Amino acid sequence: MLWKNKTSELYAKRTLHSLTALKMASKCSATKCKLRFLDYFRLVMKHNSSFAVASSKNLFCNGRESKTWRNETRPEPVVPGWKKQRAIILQGKMMAYLLLGLLVGGCGTTPFGSGTVSDSGRQAVGAPVSDGRFREAAEQNLRMASRATIPRRYDYLLAAMGRYLDGGDANAAKGVLARIDTTKWTRPQQDFGDLLAARIALAERRPRAALASLKKIQSPDCRQKESDVAPHLPSHCGPRLPKSRWASFFRTRAMAYAESGGDDNALDALRDRIALDMLLEDPSEIATNHRAIWSRLSSLSPSFLARAYLQPLGSSAPVPLRIKILRGWLTLAGIVGKYTAGKTSIRSEPLSQTLASWRKRYPGHPAERFLLPELIAAGQKKPPPHIALLLPLNGDFSGVARAIQDGFITAWLHDSGAADRPVVTIGNTVGADIGALYQEAIDAGAEFIVGPLDKPSVARLTELPALQKPVLALNHAENSAGEARGHPGSGAPLYQFTLDPEEEAAQAARRARSDGCIRAGVLTPETHWGQRMADSFTGQWREHGGTIADGQSFSDKPEEIAASVQKLLDNTERERPQSPSSSVPREYDMDCILMAAFPREARQLQPQLNFYYAGDVPIYATSHLFGGIVDPVSDQDIDGIIFGDMPWILRGSEDASVLRDRVMETWPEFAQKYLRYYALGIDAYRILPYLEGLRAGSFEDFQGQTGTLLVDGQGRVNRKLLWARIRKGVPVIIH
Known about the structure:
Layout: H1 2-25, H2 30-44, H3 49-60, H4 81-106, H5 119-130, H6 134-146, H7 152-166, H8 170-177, H9 187-203, H10 207-215, H11 243-260, H12 263-279, H13 283-298, H14 302-310, H15 321-340, H16 349-361, H17 371-379, E1 386-391, H18 398-414, E2 423-428, H19 434-443, E3 448-450, H20 455-462, E4 471-473, E5 477-478, E6 484-485, E7 494-496, H21 501-514, E8 519-525, H22 528-543, E9 547-554, H23 558-572, E10 592-595, H24 599-611, E11 619-621, H25 632-635, E12 642-645, H26 647-650, H27 654-666, H28 668-673, H29 675-686, H30 691-696, E13 702-703, E14 708-711, E15 717-720, E16 722-727, E17 730-734
Parallel strand pairs: 1-2, 1-3, 3-4, 4-7, 8-9, 8-10, 10-11, 11-12
Antiparallel strand pairs: 5-6, 12-16, 13-14, 14-15, 16-17
C-alpha cells in the first residue's frame, strides 16, 4: 500500500511537471515548441500515453485539430487480459510517437499565406519561381486551389495573387482577388489579402488606396509609425504579421508614401525604408533599398532636412539606434546637398574631408556599406577631358541650338576647379554627314560627343556598326512605329536625352491618376503635335486603369475654342432633373481634364470651363501651359491648373535660381523664348560623368535643372518633373 501511494504521488508530480512543460510549449515559437515537446514526452510517455495524445492535441495545437489527424472510433480488438493490456499500451505509445511527428512538422508558427501550403505544393511551384516564371507558378497555385476546400483554397489563391504581382501582372492578381469571398478569410488570410491589395493599388498608381489597405493590418496596440520600432520584428504591433511579411509591408508602404509626394510623406517613406533595412539580409536587396533611401533624401529641400533632423525626439530623450540611423542619413544628405548647390558636381576636396568626419560621427552606419563608397567615388569623377558639341548652328533649329550651346558653356564656366575643365569644341551639323562629322570629332581628340539635335542625324548614328566614343544625343531616334530605339551594336554607348512632350503628357496622366481621378476628358490642339499628345494622354490613362470620358481638339481661333469646350462638356454632362430654372449647376461625368495647350490657348480654355460650371473639375497640363516668366496679370485666367515643369522654371532649388538669373541677365530677350533649352544644355554638360553609373544602377538618379534624371537600360535619359498649381497667376510648387 505504501509502495502504491508513493507511486501515485510520483505519477502526480510528473503529470504536474508535464502540464507545466505543455503550457510553456503552447506559448513558444516553433523551434522551442519542438524542444519542449520532446522534454514533455520524456516525462509523460512512461506513465500515460493516452494523456499525451489528448493533451498535446488540445494544447500544443491551441485547440486546432490537424486535418491529417482524425478521431475515429474503432472497435477494440478482443484479446485475452494481459495481451489486451499490452496492446493498449503499445497502441498508445505508437499513437504518441505518430503525434510527435505530426506536431513537430505541423504545429509550428508559419508565415500566413504560404505556411499553409503543403510541402508538395511548395515544391511544385518552386522551380518556375526560381526561374522567374511567376505566371506559371501562379497558374499552378490556381490548379491546386481548384482541388482544395475552404480555407485552404484561399491560401492557394492568395499565393497565386502574390506570384502574379511578383511577375508584374496586377490585373491578373486583381482578377483572382475578385474570386475570393473575403468574409470567409481567416485572420492571417485577411492580413495577407490587405497586403496584396495594397500592392495592386500601388501598381495602379493609387498610393492613397494602398496606404488605406496597409492601415488595416495594424494592430490596435500598434503605434502610429511601425518603422520607429527597434530592429528585426516590431513586437509591439502584435502578431498580426509574421516577420517574413514585415519586409514586404515596409517596402510597399514606403513606395506608397513616396508616390503620394510631399516632404512629410517622403520622411515617412524614409522611416519605412530604414525599418526595412533592419530586416533585409540579401546584399543586393540592401543596396537597392539604400538607393531608394538616397533618392527620397535627394528629393527633400535643405530647409526640410534641417527641420527633420530635430524632429524625431525631444531634448532630454536618449538617442535610440533607429533615430541615430535616420539622423545619419539626413546629415549625409545635407552635406552632399551643401556641396552640390551652385556647383556642377560633388567634385570638391573639402567634401571628401567632410565625409570622413561624418564617418567618425556615425560609425557603423548602414550608408557606409554601399552609398558612402559611391559618393567618394563620385567625388573623384571628372568630365571627359575633351568634349565635342555637335549642333545645327544655322537654319530652323538654330535658336534652340544656340540656347543649348549657351547653357552648356554656362555650366562649363560654373564648374568648380578651372584646372579640371575639359576642352570643348563645337561643330555645325547643318549640311554635314553626321557619320563623317562624328569621326572628325574623334580624330580631333574628343572623348565624348554631345549631339546631334535632329532626329534623322540621331537615327543615322544608330545605324553605324559600332561607336568608338560615347554619344549623348539631344533627341530620340525612332523606329517606324515612332518608338525610341537605341544603338543595336556593340562599342561605346549611345545615350538619348531630350525634352520629350509625349513623356510630359504621360507624367501628367500618371499624376492625375495617382490623385484619384478615374474618368478623364482630354483637350489638345487640332494639330499633329496635339494628336501625339492626345495619344500619349489616352494610352497612359488606360494603361493605369482609367477611362476616357471624351476627347476634343481645338483650333487657335477663339470661337472654335469655345465650341470645343462646349462639345466636351455636352458629351460628359450628367442628366439633370427637370427644373423650370436654368440656373441649376451642371454636373459632368468626368473627374478631371488632361490638357495640352500653350499659354494663349490655355488662357481662353479655362474661362470657358468656368462659364459652363466646370471650374471645379481639376485640370492637369504639361509645361507648355506656362511661358516660364511669372506674369500674374495674364496668368490669373489659368488659376487652379496643375502642371508639371522643370526645377529650372519653378526655381525648385538654389542652384536653379542662381544659374537662371545669370542666363537672364546675359541674354534677357533671347533667353525668354528658349528658356527651357538653356536648362537642357546645362544638364547635358553636368550629367556626362554620371551617365555610366546611372545606366548601371550605381546611382538612383541625378538632380538636374530639367528634372530628376534617370537612365534606363537602353540609355534613354528620363525626366521626373516638379508639380505646381497656378495661384493668383503665380505657379506654386505642390507635392
